[in-house]
Amino acid sequence: MSSPALHSGPRRPADISAAFSSLSSPNQKYVFPHSFAQLKRKIWKDGLLQSWKEVLEELEVTAVRIAERGDSMIPRVTMESIRNGLSAEELSNIRTAGCVVVKGVLPKEALLTWKQDIRDYVAAHPGQVKGARFPSLISNLITYTEHRAGFPTGNVQVFELYNTVSQIRARTHPNVLETHRALLALWHDRSGDVSLDTPISYFDRLRIRIPGDSKFALGPHVDGGSVERWEDPEYRSCFNKILEGGSAWKEYDAYDAAPRAHAKQDLHEASSQCSIFRPWQGWTAMSSTGPGEGTLRVFPSLSIATAYWMLRPFFKPRDPSSTSLKWEDWNELDLDGPAFAGTGLGVGQEFSDATHPHLRLAQTMVSMPHVEPGDQVYWHCDMIHAVEGYHGGKGDASVMYIPAVPLTLENAQYLRDQRNNFLAGLPAPDFPAGPGESTFVGRATAEDVYPGGLGAMGLEKFGVEGNESKLFAEANRILAVA
Ligand SMILES: [Fe+2]
């Protein structure tokens, strides 16, 4: 097992616009070193031409299906079904879609109370709580939420808060950890380097989006790095079947954890990008919110979309002015240009009609169905997702970002740093540095962690001492460092 150092120090302060290429310089294409053309040629196999043809045909069929079925493509399960064990059909549906809504994970009343507690906490620290700066990806127009402190007078939608009692209670609640175990079990690991039944906590922000907001809008993108998926050999190996040629792409397994455990997702000092293996991104609803009310949108058919955008950099249209999406008009090889569509160095992977027209995003990005406080939404780490540009509802659209993350050695290193930051009231390591909540009255402490969640927070050893697995023993050694 290797254990590369993930974090040598705090992240540089930055806002999320730095993470998306077209936002920082909407009219300027990324300049890639020429070595990236060599990388393309190194990866290229003649059999990929056939793969590309098959993927384009399958993607066209999928797009029609999504347009017809809409949000019925998004599986829904209940906390009760999680507890009783998901059926084979439910598991299959979740794997295929790459996302799921879990109803009733936490009591509705608890979430409403926790949301009010967050509001009270913000109000008790006037001028001290920052709002995350998010740019709008729509039409490449750069707009930002105001970086103004306070609630509710400032136009803050996403708060730079990581250590509220509400977040800690939600992250470590027994039902949440049980849901994480169930969803991580959809993955498999042959390496022994990933403990899929050991969920750990990954601190993230929270959002309280007010009606009428059109500032917090994120266009279609995938997190977890961008060009690194081709550039890093370990990360690239996750997609071996897609890059093998012929019809091998059909055997692509999006739920193989082994190559992901050591993949390097950040080779270019990206800001505001998750640096660890996070199989399921997720959020917990703190409001009653439905389509049109500023919610999440996804492309609800994971593997075909992934196959498409992993193959896309190797091809270009024969006539750039043509709108044809036919394979015969799109089968010119692009092995001399170093660019990877929608990516850059140190930025996220983005999608638009200009860069990825075959996704037919206008008809394939589907909004999450109605959720109630206490429901959760999860989506695969390679899933194309976005946030509705406009919140047209009447109430707030509010979530806590809580992903499902397993224990690995690399993740244990991050957990150690995150735990130490938590105890000091600082932002989590992947997020903009600064004093955070270190001087705040009423921030969470270890006392607020549910007893069953101490391990997930890095506050308790994994396994039975003297009889741990090799992974647990090494993780415990890592976590012992203060
Ligand atoms: Fe995202």
From TrEMBL:
InterPro entries: Gig2-like, IPNS-like_sf. It holds the Pfam family Gig2-like. It comes from the Eukaryota. This is DUF1479-domain-containing protein. It comes from Mycena alexandri.
